[in-house]
Amino acid sequence: MPPEYRVEPLGASHDRAGFSCGVAELDRYIQQQAGQDLKRKLAAVFVLTADSREIAGFYTLSASSILAAALPPDLANRLPRFPLPVTLLGRMGVVRSKQGFGFGQFLLFHALERAWRGSHEIGCWAVIVDAKAGARDFYLKHSFRPFPAEPDRLFLLMNEIEKMFRI
Ligand SMILES: CC(C)(COP(=O)(O)OP(=O)(O)OC[C@H]1O[C@@H](n2cnc3c(N)ncnc32)[C@H](O)[C@@H]1OP(=O)(O)O)[C@@H](O)C(=O)NCCC(=O)NCCS
Fold it and tell me: How far is the C-alpha of 57 from the C-alpha of 106, rounded, in Å?
């Protein structure tokens, strides 16, 4: 990642209209919805930028929960029946001109590290993601596992994430 790039909370200086990752739903989200979600505390929205204006990529995080029954049986059998706290990596995208240069991987690890740090303050069993068309393999490649009945919904245990970041 070139050193001038940093991750910032979405703010007024960022050019949302200029962002396009090639998935219309995600483009619409950052252009029209993300600001409202932020205001209403439905999602925390973070952007990757070199100049606090142009958005090279973004991701969103929200608190969520899942039931153990939705997990593969080897895990489900060892977990309580009440809803398990998780962090939802709701949306993520990299601007089309910068796809294929490691920006997506950088953003994913940034989001995972943020979720892991948060888990020290508020319990979080896993990070989950609903993969958009074509992105499922991206998450599989990065150790996520699918929910048996919802193959496009994937999870990564916080204990596994912790191993990536704990020194
Ligand atoms: C999916 C996306 C975020 C990946 O970002 P990117 O910057 O293009 O990916 P990177 O360059 O960081 O790729 C990292 C690795 O993942 C692989 N990868 C990237 N996109 C992939 C995909 N769709 N499927 C499988 N593997 C993928 C790369 O080949 C690379 O592998 P390598 O380390 O072995 O070379 C980006 O392409 C994107 O925004 N796509 C459109 C929106 C979208 O689908 N978002 C996900 C919504 S859930």
Answer: 10
Q: Is 94 in the pocket of ligand 1 (CB under 6 A)?
A: yes
The span from the CA of 162 to the CA of 159, in Å, is 5
pLDDT (tens digit, 9 = 90+) per residue, 140-157? Answer: 999 999 999 999 999 999
Q: Ligand 1 in contact with 103 (CB < 6 A)?
A: yes
Q: Which domains does the chain have, with CATH numbers?
A: 6-165 (3.40.630.30)
State which of 97, 138, 140 you would mutate to test the pocket of ligand 1, scoring each by most atoms of that ligand within 8 A of its C-beta: 138
Write the pLDDT tens digit of every residue in 85-119.
999 999 999 999 999 999 999 999 999 999 999 99
